Amino acid sequence: MLGHSLLEAAAAISVSALLLSTAVGGIALSASTLAQCAALEAEMLAWRQIEHLIDTAVDRAGLGPSRPTPLADFGPDQLVIQSDLDGNGSVNPRSAETTTIALRVGKSGTALVHKVGRQAMRLISDMGPESRLRVYTSTALPTAGPSQVALVELRVGGEKDGRVLLWALPR
Fold it and tell me: Cα(40)–Cα(59) distance, rounded to whole angstroms?
């Protein structure tokens, strides 16, 4: 009788240890999942803020009574978006009527810079060396001039692991 109770006690202890280790493992896994979800949420919020800044500039592009060309200048490392917000018939490059989205190469890598008038803000510090800006016409051909640009592509990172932001300019 004593042997059975010791055997039953050992089985109960081993089952309890198994249940306890499963519970601890589940708690550790849920903590890890929670941390990853929080990091993903922060990353998504940062990307949404970048999209909002670019969307705001694009939404205002070409506005005003003089209807300026939405894209004043473009190149592989920058876009200059313009509008006539005060309605005086001209675009002031030192005011909020001019927004520049640029890739700047520095000591720490390639950075995405958002410049409104004379005020500049770094949005992403290290985007990777493969990051680039591309512009397309409405027929997806390379474009010759700012007035022909219909679509802008911003690639952050490489072809396989990067992100792509696309936005259309008003025509």
Answer: 28
Contacts of residue 122, Cβ cutoff 8 Å, sequence gap at least 6: 111, 112, 113
pTM of the model: 0.71
Buried b (16+ CB within 10 A) or exposed e, 7-29: eeeeeeeeeeeeeeeeeeeeeee
Overall domain count for the chain? 1
Judged on CB neighbours under 10 Å (0-12, 13-18, 19+), 61 is: buried
What are the respective helix, strand and coil percentages of the chain, to the nearest 5? Answer: 35, 30, 35
- 80 located within any domain: yes
For the chain, the farthest-separated pair of C-alpha atoms sits apart, in whole angstroms, at 102
Tell me if 164 is assigned to some domain: no
20: helix, coil or strand? helix
pLDDT band, very low/low/confident/very high, at 160 (cuts 50, 70, 90): confident
Q: Is residue 147 part of a domain?
A: no
- Residue 151 forms part of a structural domain: no
Cα 43 from chain centroid (whole Å):
8
pLDDT, tens digit (0-9, with 9 covering 90-100), for 22-67: 888 888 888 889 899 998 898 888 888 888 888 888 888 887 777 8
